[in-house]
Amino acid sequence: MAKVSMTVNGTSVSREVEGQTLLVSMLREDLRLTGTHVGCDTSQCGACVVHVNGKAVKSCTMFAVEADGAEVSTIEGQANSDGTLSTIQQAFQEHHGLQCGFCTPGMVMSAAALLKDNPTPTEGEVRAYLDGNICRCTGYHNIVKAIMAASGQDVSAIAAE
């Protein structure tokens, strides 16, 4: 067992975990932050994306002990401090960027990382950035549109696929 301490969504947490405990497991099982999803266990789908020290990370490929001392942000930490949806979450709602919702937390977390690094990405840059996130429902069109809208860009010219 190893003691792991980190700040998750602004709250300091410490837990005793097995060395092989994945960060996604600690978040979901120990901290009950179930918005981070496990979709594939092979780092292919992106449903488990969280931010570790400001960088988008697939939490199914990171051991919890590797995040010791880190700042971790999950989908539960993305809402505004008053509980309203963040700009990105609102854009996903307004532009129908979700269907079943399973991939949505990972998509929102990836979108937040992209817009932090590139505040006004092109449609091509959004599509390229989402390469590691799989959605089996939407065909990505409205997800891309939502991310572009969250960046403050006009999305009326985005053509349907």
From TrEMBL:
<dbReference type="InterPro" id="IPR036010">
    <property type="entry name" value="2Fe-2S_ferredoxin-like_sf"/>
</dbReference>
<keyword id="KW-0479">Metal-binding</keyword>
<dbReference type="InterPro" id="IPR001041">
    <property type="entry name" value="2Fe-2S_ferredoxin-type"/>
</dbReference>
<dbReference type="Pfam" id="PF01799">
    <property type="entry name" value="Fer2_2"/>
</dbReference>
<dbReference type="InterPro" id="IPR012675">
    <property type="entry name" value="Beta-grasp_dom_sf"/>
</dbReference>
<dbReference type="InterPro" id="IPR051452">
    <property type="entry name" value="Diverse_Oxidoreductases"/>
</dbReference>
<keyword id="KW-0411">Iron-sulfur</keyword>
<keyword id="KW-0001">2Fe-2S</keyword>
<dbReference type="Pfam" id="PF00111">
    <property type="entry name" value="Fer2"/>
</dbReference>
<protein>
    <submittedName>
        <fullName>(2Fe-2S)-binding protein</fullName>
    </submittedName>
</protein>
<dbReference type="GO" id="GO:0046872">
    <property type="term" value="F:metal ion binding"/>
</dbReference>
<dbReference type="GO" id="GO:0051537">
    <property type="term" value="F:2 iron, 2 sulfur cluster binding"/>
</dbReference>
<feature type="domain" description="2Fe-2S ferredoxin-type">
    <location>
        <begin position="2"/>
        <end position="78"/>
    </location>
</feature>
<dbReference type="InterPro" id="IPR036884">
    <property type="entry name" value="2Fe-2S-bd_dom_sf"/>
</dbReference>
<keyword id="KW-0560">Oxidoreductase</keyword>
<keyword id="KW-0408">Iron</keyword>
<dbReference type="InterPro" id="IPR002888">
    <property type="entry name" value="2Fe-2S-bd"/>
</dbReference>
<dbReference type="GO" id="GO:0016491">
    <property type="term" value="F:oxidoreductase activity"/>
</dbReference>
